[in-house]
Design a protein that fits this description.
- This protein has 14 helices and 7 strands.
- The N and C termini lie far apart (48 Å).
- The protein is an alpha/beta fold.
- A 7-stranded mixed sheet has the order 3-2-1-4-5-7-6, with helices on both faces.
- Helices cover 41% and strands 13% of the residues.
- α7 packs across α8 and α8 crosses α9.
- The longest helix has 15 residues.
- The protein is globular.
- The structure holds S-adenosylmethionine.
Length: 305
């Protein structure tokens, strides 16, 4: 059995790639914006002993290791955290999005459709409502829209209708069963557990995840020093789309309309894409750690002030 407490909390994904991409900032200040079990921070600390690491996580269960400064906050507050530490510029930022293995595997957190637990799904106490509020109180249209948008679920209408009809729904297993029975029998046999997308959607709404990513990236890139790098690992297309767009915006030079014969804006890009296409985990890693399967990694570097 694996005795490393960091790995028991969460098996980190694409660690080798992250360590390599952050080598140019080996003596700088890095914000690990999704500290979790500290697996990535620990690997970076071992590879680069002079790297200063500030960890952020909104989950109260996280615990700091060694000399890493850890704050229990949302990463959208990254700018305020740096102000409080008196740090003007950072050399690196790491975002490893989504939930940790610890959160997913702790039944009382309510993230999993496989374990019986309360309808909670808050990553931290800062979330203003829980899964139960969405499931038991939101009107049909709002519920359907969330399941459709964040879960990309084609049966969102049927699922939302079934949830509203079966209220009150007390726990994760009951919710998973309501979703399963709302999906047509033929579709239940394809694409994993039928409740997976609905659970993902509710979790994303509870934690306001997409807005958090936009704000967190903006804060990190605004404070990045020249030569600094930001690495993001995302786990589904909605997350990756935001990362890709945010990086592309920062790496864009001229913004003149295409009909202009020559550039008049004179804008030079402040960033360059280190990864043009997202990197994927190796087949070996996916075999060892199935949670790595959907990972996509992107990296950007600041090249001008
Ligand atoms: C995939 S885990 C990170 C695991 C970590 N890289 C490791 O090696 O153990 C994601 C972590 O990010 C945290 N998180 C997600 N969204 C956050 C946010 N907006 N602000 C702060 N922490 C967040 C979660 O609480 C979770 O612990």
């Amino acid at each position: 059995m694996d005795q490393d407490p960091k790995r028991e909390y969460h098996e980190p994904v694409m660690t080798r790639e992250i360590v390599e991409l952050l080598e140019p900032i080996d003596r700088g200040v890095l914000v690990d914006a999704t500290y979790g079990g500290g697996g990535h921070s620990g690997a970076l600390r071992s590879a680069y002993p002079d790297l200063q690491i500030i960890g952020i996580d909104r989950d109260m269960d996280v615990e700091a290791g060694g000399d890493i400064r850890l704050v229990r906050r949302r990463f959208s507050e990254l700018g305020d955290v740096l102000d409080e530490f008196g740090i003007e510029r950072i050399d690196g930022a790491l975002f490893d999005l989504g939930v940790s293995g610890h959160q997913f595997d702790t039944p009382s957190r309510g993230f999993s459709y496989r374990h019986p637990g309360p309808l909670d799904m808050r990553m931290g106490p800062d979330a203003s409502f829980s899964a139960s509020d969405i499931v038991n109180q939101w009107p049909f249209e709002r519920l359907r829209d969330v399941i459709q948008r964040y879960g990309e679920e084609r049966f969102a209408g049927r699922i939302a209708r079934a949830i509203v009809e079966q209220r009150p729904i007390e726990n994760t297993i009951d919710l998973a069963e309501v979703v399963r029975s709302a999906v047509p029998a033929a579709a239940r046999r394809t694409g994993g557990h039928p409740a997976k997308r609905t659970f993902q959607a509710i979790r994303m709404a509870v934690n306001d995840e997409l807005a958090e990513i936009e704000r967190g990236l903006e804060a990190a890139l605004d404070r990045m020093a020249e030569g600094g790098r930001c690495v993001v690992v995302s786990y589904h297309s909605l997350e990756d789309r935001i990362v890709k767009r945010s990086f592309a915006d920062r790496a864009r030079g001229c913004v003149c309309p295409p009909e202009f014969p020559e550039c008049r804006c004179g804008r030079v890009p402040a960033f360059r894409l280190v990864t043009r296409k997202a990197l994927r985990p190796t087949a070996d890693e996916v075999e060892r750690n199935p949670r790595a399967r959907s990972a996509r990694l992107r990296c950007i570097e600041r090249i001008a002030a």
